[in-house]
What does this fold into?
Amino acid sequence: MDARPQHDSADDARETHGEVGWERNLWVSVFGSFTTIVGMTLLLPFLPLYVEELGVTGHADIVQWSGVAFSATFFTAALFAPLWGRLGDLYGRKLMLIRASLGMTIAISLIGTAQNVWQLVGLRLLTGFLGGYASGANLLVATQTPKARTGWALGMLSSGMMAGNLAGPLIGGTLPPLIGIRNTFFAAGAMIAVAFLATTFLIKEEKRPPTHKAKSRGGWSAIPDKRPVIAMLVTGCLLMFANMSIEPIITVYVATLVDQAHVTFVSGLAMSAAALGSILSASRLGKMADRVGHWNVLIGCTVASAILLIPQAFVTAGWQLVALRFLMGLALGGLLPCITSVIRHSVPVGVVGGVLGYAVSAQFVGQVAGPLAGGFVGGQLGMRSVFIGTCLLMILGAVLNMVVQARLRAEKSET
It folds into this structure.
């Protein structure tokens, strides 16, 4: 049984009016999240080539500038996610989606006109600042969907996001040879423009004036019990950490398992296997969480992810690593919708946008810290240590969630 606070019954009553058309909102949000994430990630396969085209010479400088340009978007996105979430609470979630899709249409298209690497980095920073469609869609779906269907809906949205992460590099590897690098950005901008039009004309949000309580008190101070939120911030960070910690070492690790001729192919399979597993499992695990409780599924998925990390450290063949990454993706797919659902049920509706913004920032922290820690630990202690260390962190996350859930249940039974 889920331990849920009792403070938001008034919020529930207000939200019943927003449930009309929630399925249409969901599918538009899935499409918009998919297209915007494709736009953010499609340059990965050809980014070094574009950096070189913009005048950077020397292998080391090209690699360095490529890393700066790619991470720039996620840096500003992490900084401004809480702001956009808070503004969504005050002025409407649909408005934030319109802002993000229009902003990314312009920013992604402008990247195709960059004349030097400084402009490229600046436009990538602008993309992260203007973006935030996926996090805004997360908020809209969480607050406009009937609570009994929240887990399933957020699972479908999570699948769309993961599909964008999977398809972006694939599209980026296919289009430039056909239409050129600059035209690839224009095409991505046009695709996001379709999402902008769909968001503007198809999404229907029930208008609700912001509560005075939400205006007068900050999002964090308005939360009556902060323990579930803190647990979800930590879990979200660990989710992305676990998913990304292998990235810096995977090619080198695969090279110890397969012939040199197959290293790139198997590395690509291993990288995409986890995303594919999450796409397949997110909606199903979200639906299960609606039945058996979001905390229960979240803890189970965290434990399963931790267990699956152990054999990855001791594989002897490339196909074993690919299979285990796929299974781990199946487990990780249940975390994001459950994290969002627990936050949704634990805070007043008037501040849920700001809190989900903090959750997005926490996930970006994991996305940045995972590769950094993986590269450092792999270089200093050996590649197998990356899997073991990440496993221990996931176990600590599961213990944290079990402790918080047990205390919430105990307090609820006493009242």
Remarks:
- The chain has a mean pLDDT of 83.
- The radius of gyration is 21 Å.
- The chain has 18 helices and no strands.
- The longest helix spans residues 59-91.
